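Example record

One chain of 241 residues, shown exactly as stored in the release files.
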Amino acid sequence: MDSLYCHIWPGRGNNCNTYVFANVLDGGRPHLLIDPGHVENEVKERCFDHLLMSMEGDGLKPEDVGLIVITHSHSDHCAATPALVQRTRANTGAGRVEQALIAMHEEEDRFRREMAGRTGREMDFEPDICLREGDLVLGKERKTNLKVLHTPGHSPGSISIYWPDKRVVITGDAVFYAAIGRTDIPGGDGKQLKQSIEKLSELEVDYLLAGHSTQFGSIIEGREMVARNFTFIRMNYFPML
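Predicted structure tokens for this chain:
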């Protein structure tokens, strides 16, 4: 759809779907990428290599990514971030090095640091931009108006990205096709997730793009099908949250 490309993970093991808004940023790196995923997953599938091939098949150069938005800090959504940043790294002269910027919600950055303190396992990157709920306007001449939605429950700082002009929402791990994100993990909260799902259900949405595929699919197309999906989730999952 226009500038939005969906790279659906087709493998057997765990990895997220990646979404790219192409040619929406000013300057030499015009692409925004959401959730680069794993480098390699638990069954040794080369997830990042697959993403690079998928992007290049669509005519998108990973070197042209200027902004990486992370919906939440679980490794299956962000472990490949340093590798992607390295692909964008370039010496611009006079000792200056430029590279893609990394953005996540400020609450998720706090959670990421807290978990690193508990486990001793720090991620190999730091966000350059801490997001809050509100407008995310890309570009100056040909503007793309997105909205950052704070949708906690799967993790404290999980976000979804809404494109109101095209009625598209990218939900991360808040809601899937006939399923929801887990809450029985550190940072999970069933009450918050229920509120986040209700918040998402109030949007005008023709395309719901989930962070992972289920047996039913990844993309829910059509306002009626999106509404049915929320109804199914209320009936089958809300009693357990």
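Notes: The first strand starts at residue 4 and ends at 7.
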